[in-house]
From TrEMBL, chains A, B, C, D:
NCBIfam families: argC. InterPro entries: AGPR, AGPR_dimerisation_dom, AGPR_type-1, NAD(P)-bd_dom_sf, Semialdehyde_DH_NAD-bd. One of its GO terms (biological process) is L-arginine biosynthetic process. GO terms for cellular component: cytoplasm. Residues 10-149 form the Semialdehyde dehydrogenase NAD-binding domain. Its main location: cytoplasm. It catalyses: N-acetyl-L-glutamate 5-semialdehyde + phosphate + NADP(+) = N-acetyl-L-glutamyl 5-phosphate + NADPH + H(+). This is N-acetyl-gamma-glutamyl-phosphate reductase. SUPFAM superfamilies: Glyceraldehyde-3-phosphate dehydrogenase-like, C-terminal domain, NAD(P)-binding Rossmann-fold domains. Its EC number is 1.2.1.38. The keyword Oxidoreductase applies.
UniProtKB/TrEMBL annotation, chains E, F:
This is Lysine biosynthesis protein LysW. It holds the Pfam family Zn_ribbon_LysW. PANTHER family: LYSINE BIOSYNTHESIS PROTEIN-RELATED, LYSINE BIOSYNTHESIS PROTEIN-RELATED-RELATED. InterPro entries: LysW.
Amino acid sequence: MSTSEYGVKRVAILGGTGFTGAEIYRLLSKHPLFKVEFVSSESKAGSPVDKHFMAARHGKKSNALKFSKIADLNSNYDIIFSCLPTGVLPQFINQLSLHADYIFNVSGDYRVTDLDLLQKHYPETLKHEFVGSSYYYIPEFSEIDHQVKVVNLPGCMAVATIYTIYPLLAHDLIENRIVSDAKTGSSGGGKTTTEHHAERTNNFRAHKVHGHRHKPEIEFAFKTYFQKEIDLQFSTYSLDLPRGIMVTSYSVLKEGVSEIDVKKAFYRTYSSTPFIHYFNSNTGHNSNPMIKTVAGTNYGEVGVYIDGKNCVSIASIDNLIKGAGGQAIQAANLYMGFPEETGLQSELEGAWP
Amino acid sequence: MSTSEYGVKRVAILGGTGFTGAEIYRLLSKHPLFKVEFVSSESKAGSPVDKHFMAARHGKKSNALKFSKIADLNSNYDIIFSCLPTGVLPQFINQLSLHADYIFNVSGDYRVTDLDLLQKHYPETLKHEFVGSSYYYIPEFSEIDHQVKVVNLPGCMAVATIYTIYPLLAHDLIENRIVSDAKTGSSGGGKTTTEHHAERTNNFRAHKVHGHRHKPEIEFAFKTYFQKEIDLQFSTYSLDLPRGIMVTSYSVLKEGVSEIDVKKAFYRTYSSTPFIHYFNSNTGHNSNPMIKTVAGTNYGEVGVYIDGKNCVSIASIDNLIKGAGGQAIQAANLYMGFPEETGLQSELEGAWP
Amino acid sequence: MSTSEYGVKRVAILGGTGFTGAEIYRLLSKHPLFKVEFVSSESKAGSPVDKHFMAARHGKKSNALKFSKIADLNSNYDIIFSCLPTGVLPQFINQLSLHADYIFNVSGDYRVTDLDLLQKHYPETLKHEFVGSSYYYIPEFSEIDHQVKVVNLPGCMAVATIYTIYPLLAHDLIENRIVSDAKTGSSGGGKTTTEHHAERTNNFRAHKVHGHRHKPEIEFAFKTYFQKEIDLQFSTYSLDLPRGIMVTSYSVLKEGVSEIDVKKAFYRTYSSTPFIHYFNSNTGHNSNPMIKTVAGTNYGEVGVYIDGKNCVSIASIDNLIKGAGGQAIQAANLYMGFPEETGLQSELEGAWP
Amino acid sequence: MSTSEYGVKRVAILGGTGFTGAEIYRLLSKHPLFKVEFVSSESKAGSPVDKHFMAARHGKKSNALKFSKIADLNSNYDIIFSCLPTGVLPQFINQLSLHADYIFNVSGDYRVTDLDLLQKHYPETLKHEFVGSSYYYIPEFSEIDHQVKVVNLPGCMAVATIYTIYPLLAHDLIENRIVSDAKTGSSGGGKTTTEHHAERTNNFRAHKVHGHRHKPEIEFAFKTYFQKEIDLQFSTYSLDLPRGIMVTSYSVLKEGVSEIDVKKAFYRTYSSTPFIHYFNSNTGHNSNPMIKTVAGTNYGEVGVYIDGKNCVSIASIDNLIKGAGGQAIQAANLYMGFPEETGLQSELEGAWP
Amino acid sequence: MSSLSCLVCKSDFSVEEDATTGEIVECSSCGQEHEVHAVHNLITIALAPEIEETWGE
Amino acid sequence: MSSLSCLVCKSDFSVEEDATTGEIVECSSCGQEHEVHAVHNLITIALAPEIEETWGE
Ligand SMILES: NC(=O)c1ccc[n+]([C@@H]2O[C@H](COP(=O)([O-])OP(=O)(O)OC[C@H]3O[C@@H](n4cnc5c(N)ncnc54)[C@H](OP(=O)(O)O)[C@@H]3O)[C@@H](O)[C@H]2O)c1
Ligand SMILES: NC(=O)c1ccc[n+]([C@@H]2O[C@H](COP(=O)([O-])OP(=O)(O)OC[C@H]3O[C@@H](n4cnc5c(N)ncnc54)[C@H](OP(=O)(O)O)[C@@H]3O)[C@@H](O)[C@H]2O)c1
Ligand SMILES: NC(=O)c1ccc[n+]([C@@H]2O[C@H](COP(=O)([O-])OP(=O)(O)OC[C@H]3O[C@@H](n4cnc5c(N)ncnc54)[C@H](OP(=O)(O)O)[C@@H]3O)[C@@H](O)[C@H]2O)c1
Ligand SMILES: NC(=O)c1ccc[n+]([C@@H]2O[C@H](COP(=O)([O-])OP(=O)(O)OC[C@H]3O[C@@H](n4cnc5c(N)ncnc54)[C@H](OP(=O)(O)O)[C@@H]3O)[C@@H](O)[C@H]2O)c1
Ligand SMILES: [Zn+2]
Ligand SMILES: [Zn+2]
């Protein structure tokens, strides 16, 4: 791909020592059109960025770029990628807005806008008023709105769930009762998770049976952006894996809907999405979505399986890439008018086993 | 426990080199009232049994007991434990019936008795007529019937599912639509599974989305033995674990049913089952069912979580023990009139992490 | 085993919320002759002990025993098991000595007594003078000395290494140059380890190539207690396992020493040790020491393999049990004159796979 | 990199359904200068190649290229990559030699040329006379010899070991006694390994303590190609990982050799090798070689750690890539005069954790 | 462009004239894979063989 | 090109004139990392800070 026709953009990353911030830094180090010029960390401010990253292990390192505190961001950037824990961005948002055209935000802060939901699930967010405009953006389904300042990417388990049910809802194929069973790897909780390796390993357990924040997010997304009210049961589980999410959604086909209607809906939805791949043949378990083949990539795998009225749809993604950092870069590519796949294709993708 | 009041029973194991047969052999080596005198293997006939078992690694070994072919079983035993692949026991059943009071069978052959289901799911079983009587037996829920010859233990994922929904159905608390999402470790497929370690490890994937044989078994169990017709969606998934099953069942409470009704039903059902433990407090994820704390034991963990009308019930067991070998011994204890826990308690149970 | 002839001993555990303290508490809950009456925790003082333990998951719980601060230990106990981080016991040792006949200590504080080594490796220990007597005790090799107050158990990797080379040194079979390569699971670092699950999992890496504290301990043990000067290279590695240690020691046979001399030495050393099993047949990789078959038990596996002058000896143990808590109980059994295996045998030991 | 100046080469792969063959096929699908036109499989002959590969999961598939039997190879190719089990290539070698300029061979068949060693370790190879010329080639250390027909790549554990000791031997820094402790993931045995996932997982065990074929290979390599006689103890261990090898070599510095001499030797050896990276700072365990950061790449990590006379050198590689398929492509790049890194750089390399 | 009818969902879809034998073409409506059989420049299709995608097994 | 002396092995090695402050330069003999301190166009070096490379911790 010739990228010479595009201008290079100046980028800042907030929360660069975190799991998702590190992924964005790593991915952008190979991106021809985004140049990282600021990386925040409160705990490592002053220390060279490259020393911190495993990603720089087999590449050239420089001491030139050092971590800075967020409060010291005072140049202007085309884009800020914000990878802060939920509740932190609101403390800085009004000031940061002055220094960037767009803020691509992977935290939960502005995903829902309903006051009741915010009060219940994001009380920290509400503590700081944000005077700008904000927007929930899924690269595969949302329109670009160049007027907004903050582009919020979806939650990792939320978006995997949305990939399983969007085609069904968009084509009005299912009853509104949906059960989603979501399993996630351990990086999903960020670098400060306290669960000991010895406890997590060789185990599988329920994480949040009820009350996960991604449930209202999914409901809100379908209601606000796609005008669908759903009746969702959403439960989460912990896998002994470093990365990866798999969500299965169970639903019931509406009277008269056939298997071929469902397959058509999925095929149409995902036939031209470069990163979400719908597997329409079902010949052996290796043709079903799995985690191993998406881990480390920006790809998602989607499958749907019909047995009579029973509809089971499955999606798998890497939580740190397609569920966070890669998703944000994909969104930024689209906002900047760059080819969607820029910097996100993997030459060595697909190692097996 | 004083066991001197009971007489020791003579036992044969069929399929002693398999995963479940080995577990029964290992467990019975410490059981004070069952004495193993015959162990079958076609492939290792003539070779000393103790040489084969990792379980004998830290114990005393003897060369006295050698593997025999099934066709060479011609003494009489109080009990035969049959751990053969589905389709094999029927070839020998009429002959074996003459040599044992009871056959405790962990394979799928006689679990369903409906001819259509047999034809569809167990065609191998139908090839051989069995003239004796057979019975589906779950230690926690079934009555003992001393008249039968073959006592069939439930399938491992089937019984874990049954533990999640039995209290709900027995107390008529839920609508009949149930979604069960079952995850299993790799020993579930027996020792001849061809999936390579390098492929299974570091992965999570769908196994059978539709069409697993435990679905008709569960439906049949509830219909025949508990007179309940259910509308079940049952899907299975593969974990990167050696052992263990977790099943989550999603259902909807009937109008007027409260959380406390549900908790009462679970509490009553499991208050006196020595091996199935209902966890009724939900304080942190460690109080939920998990696989790590049941692996290697005959215990099962059950939890139920209500959010409005949404009912989520979870069970975990070790597939090879509570899902097969331990279950069979527990059943045999009950049939022989022994204390239910004989030989199944673990002094070192509960290692963490 | 009839235990009625022995009197029950009163026990206190220090560091009861830690990994090794929890193992001792769990194991003693089934021990017929030790009764735990005090369990320390600074962070959970006042909270019921049983609430904290996964081990109590399938057993009867009581609220009677609550965690206490160490400073509040003022009754007298027959035995104190001390499971505190290195450097903590010395702060309390003189006071605690007044309240117990023996302190069985799994921390590193008093293992070496050479002042230079203490200064270099245990500066915290030196900060507090201890006026009593202390002793390094390996159940398999050391004599009981009833005069000492503090019985120090060996370090987990140190003792595994000692198991590999003791028979060789005791029988003077090898040159004094020894290379020991030690691999350990993640519980070895205790509950406060900061390495994230996502980083540890699916990895194998060097931990301490040089400078691990167990090196001077091993050298000191052989010098002081067995009068052997060794030239040891000792390096440690991190496994993606919750528990277990395997150490391989590489040495060179002295001129004239044969394979059979070596096998005799190992056989004699371990023929009557109830917990350390020497595997003298080498028929397939399952007859070699491994971690899976010792994890969760107080057993150790030892093998030795000769090729010409090359001697390779291997040992595996569970770091939390045979490397810490189980070892301490085994030592206490011996000190109290109880049968060595009391409370340490596992009825369900040996589950495979 | 502009590749337009080079001509595209026609390639055949033998053993394309195997683990290493699949990696070569996958890597070459992105290689601009090698075009795969023939892929052998006896078991899947006639079936479309792309259906078989997980690597094609997120790419475009074609049915055009079908697997063929080796005996049906009768066009001419610039290069054959041979990924057959040891003993198979010799059956076809004389015929194949007529159809290719070079055969890059990852199997063990022609690595040693000493007749005694062949007789002992490669009896199958000796059964068929090969009339052409053959050569042992390590991209980092060997000269290109355009006269040979068969270019043999080193064994995976052999080459990792060689990376640890080559700088030491080339600069004459160590005594000739070397202990190498090699740990490997499960794909090392190829797709037909019979060890069950449930047995391999959650374990660490000795594989071959003595007698591994890579020991004579290493000795032979140093003797023949580098004129160094070494006294090597080489033992192998099995990790619960899908891929990756780590080898630690323990040696003793010659009198007068300093740490800085050693560091200089490693630095010089690896300062311009594009795929082997020497880590000369040792600040925390993340700066040591590990498996996680090389798995899925053609990179190797090397470290060396001195304590007095004790020299410990460590290397890690991916067995299927740098230990086999990637190595062969790297060699072919060099033989063809292509830039060494062509097709082997990873844009998404370095994902963490 | 050849216009063909999907063997599963019956929708029409088109295939490039230069499609080669063995090529996989997807129905543009339901995604069903078909294998191209080209006979004397006339393209016909069959359902892509539902052989299990073994992918490295 | 500035010629500098390695702070560990004492070997001479050279650094590009346009090396920027903060840049890491390796001794060409032993590989030791140094950090460039440029003062008034005069390049000086210090050992690269031996801070632990935390890499994602
Ligand atoms: N992990 C996932 O899979 C995932 C997926 C989708 C979305 N997300 C969202 O992405 C965000 C980041 O997640 P993560 O997993 O990358 O978290 P993380 O690993 O915990 O990293 C958090 C980052 O934020 C910085 N930070 C923390 N507290 C701060 C404060 N009070 N002020 C300024 N900086 C602060 C940290 O910097 P220092 O510690 O260096 O100071 C660190 O760089 C979260 O909102 C999360 O919900 C995560
Ligand atoms: N694995 C589980 O978690 C689980 C749970 C519940 C129920 N089950 C059921 O338990 C049964 C055994 O399962 P498994 O996992 O233990 O299987 P397995 O590991 O494959 O063992 C099968 C045993 O049966 C013997 N066998 C195989 N084919 C035979 C034949 N044609 N004639 C005579 N003996 C034959 C084998 O003996 P040789 O190879 O030595 O000749 C071996 O001892 C199955 O019916 C399974 O459905 C398994
Ligand atoms: N882990 C192993 O494999 C292993 C093997 C052999 C020997 N050891 C040794 O055993 C000892 C304990 O190891 P571990 O792995 O069990 O450690 P751990 O999991 O970190 O537990 C430490 C325990 O000590 C308590 N504690 C910590 N700091 C304290 C302080 N300043 N004052 C009073 N109590 C304090 C903690 O109580 P609260 O946090 O509840 O207050 C906790 O109960 C260490 O000396 C270790 O070297 C460990
Ligand atoms: N695995 C590693 O890490 C590694 C590393 C370095 C070197 N190597 C070497 O690379 C070679 C291949 O290893 P691998 O792990 O890829 O093995 P593998 O997974 O077992 O694959 C072997 C391949 O060879 C084919 N094959 C087997 N027997 C054959 C026969 N008799 N005639 C013709 N084709 C036959 C198989 O084809 P079908 O079954 O489809 O007919 C398959 O494609 C071996 O020599 C190995 O020592 C392997
Ligand atoms: Zn169609
Ligand atoms: Zn230098």
